[in-house]
Amino acid sequence: MSQTVIENQRDYIHNILSNIDGVKKVFFQPPKDLQLVYPCIIYSLEGLSSLYSGDKRYLTFPSYSLILIDYDPESIIQKYIMDLTGDCHVSFDRFYTSDNLNHWVYTLEFSKALW
Fold first, then answer.
1. Helices (H), 1-115
2. Which of 68, 62, 67, 69 is nearest to 89 (CA)?
3. Coil, helix or strand for 83?
């Protein structure tokens, strides 16, 4: 059975994030009881933006929330995320610490429509 467009895009994101130097694990919407390994990236679907013409949707663009979690407050991985290129655009949203871990939150938006 072939993958849906969303599954293909998620595979694309997962591969890009997994290939960033220093990232030990990448998770898509992990369950709360999962033991995380740091540094890691967690990502989840954040929203869908659509363009309309003649009262019909003709293009839909997904956006994802990415969270880099690392012990190192000066993690080089944050630069690698901001330097991602290709079919997506990354913007930095905020930084916070929790349980002695540093969290960088980003939004990743696709420039290619889902459908």
1. 5-18, 77-82
2. 62
3. coil
Burial class for 17, CB neighbours closer than 10 Å (0-12, 13-18, 19+): buried
Q: What's this model's pTM, rounded to 2 decimal places?
A: 0.86
**Please, which contacts does 12-21 make with residues 24 or more away whose CB atoms are closer than 8 Å?**
12/87, 13/43, 13/64, 13/88, 13/108, 16/84, 16/86, 16/88, 17/41, 17/43, 17/66, 20/77, 20/80, 20/81, 21/76, 21/77, 21/80
E strands, 1-115, in order: 25-28, 40-53, 56-70, 88-98, 101-110
The tens-digit pLDDT sequence of the chain (115 residues) is 566 766 777 888 899 999 999 999 999 999 989 999 999 999 999 988 888 888 888 788 888 999 999 999 999 999 999 998 877 889 999 999 999 999 999 999 877 766 5
